[in-house]
Amino acid sequence: MELFENNREPERALLVELDTGEFDAAASLDELYELVRSAGAEPVLSVTQKRPSPEAATCVGAGMMREISSACQQNDIDLLVFDRELSPTQIRNIEGESGVRTIDRTMLILDIFAARARTSEGKLQVELAQLKYLLPRLTGKGVALSRLGGGIGTRGPGETKLETDRRHIRRRIESLTEQLSRVEKRREQILRRRRKNGIVSVALVGYTNAGKSTLMNALTQAGVLAKDMLFATLDPTARALKLPGGTSVMLIDTVGLVRRLPHQLVESFKSTLEQAAEADIILNVCDASSPEASEHLEVTEKLLAELGCKDTPIIPVLNKCDLVLSPDAIPAVRAAVRISAKNGMGLDRLLEQIEHNLPVQTMRIDLLLPFSQAALAARIRREGAVLSEEYTEQGIRMTAQLGPELLAAAAAFACTSPAPASSDHPAGQ
């Protein structure tokens, strides 16, 4: 489903908002502007109409439809984008009256996802969502396509072209679902292996364009694509992050959220979103400079609750605080960490909060390792936090902050009993 061609000149789009009172139409229209820009088109102007419900034939009223057609001619509009899902009949009628190609919000978001997906899993998920959207919208062209007659000249394979298309799409949907099921099983195996090895996972979730990928890069130098556009990241990325106390955790970047995300996408990307549900700690990242920051946090919290994350420590992270002119303009969110992933402000405090919410705390231990245990010493330096180290005649004297697995490996060489790390900070939830 390729909606935007790679022309030198971007397509000129007119945005249509129908305000029925179901949601904040103005905020949704602002978001639609960003979605259109992210897709590579140029939003030239927009129109809004208040109606109790969409008009069956053209979504908007007849008078507004005439105004839209006139505006398209006067402004050289190439594309009409409606901020809601349209039926095939509505699209056909709108295009017939305006003479301009028409898409709806779902088609727009699916196109952006198709352009952004990089991994094989991401591409499978997008194709599945597109086909689920397309299947109920396949329409025939009357009797002309039919070969189901009973007279001479009507005998044939006994199947219309439309039915053949539908059968092919259903087979492809079954194939994609099966492939994604295998991918999900592999991910579950990886998750079980991580848990067996005691690896703690921290998931970055939040509204799209909140700066999750920039934060991922700042903490782990992951090299994830980070751009000022919606849905810059679709494919989950996992990188190791070493905390100040020495514990290594797995930091996972997930797909961004958006208002009224098409249900086809939610279903197709469910396995990806469930990575957040399986995480030990969740960072709910939002753009503090957005006037809708509080609402964005709520959108994420609702989804996390639906995924069953109510017992998981959730740390609200207010990003892009450097763009806020006054500290008073930053949303007041309990236990939130204020940061700027771009310039590094507040990242040390964020790492502390992650550490204080770890399911298993690290322990401080004094060790005397024989020189024959050089491999264990190297592992402690690599996986733990060495607070002091000294070479003596008896061996390597070391004070380190270690997790449970390393503690068990080093316990035989302890000089004193291990003591838990001190914690002066409240939990992040």
Q: How would you explain this protein's 3D organization?
A:
- With 429 residues, this protein is an alpha/beta fold.
- It folds into three domains: 12-112, GTPase HflX, N-terminal domain (Rossmann fold, 3-Layer(aba) Sandwich), CATH 3.40.50.11060; 199-356, Rossmann fold (3-Layer(aba) Sandwich); 363-420, 2-Layer Sandwich (Alpha-Beta Plaits), CATH 3.30.70.
- It contains 13 helices and 14 strands.
- The chain has helices at residues 25-38, 62-74, 88-98, 105-116, 120-134, 161-196, 212-220, 263-268, 270-278, 293-306, 347-356, 374-383, 404-410, and strands at 12-19, 42-50, 79-82, 101-104, 200-206, 237-242, 248-253, 281-287, 314-319, 337-338, 363-369, 385-391, 396-402, 419-420.
- The strands form three sheets. Strands 6-7-5-8-9-10 form a six-stranded mixed beta sheet, with helices on both faces.
- Helix 1 runs parallel beside helix 4 (105-116) and helix 5 packs antiparallel against helix 6 (161-196).
- The protein is elongated and about 90 Å long.
- The two termini are 42 Å apart.
- The model is unreliable at 140-156, 225-234 and 422-429 (pLDDT under 50).
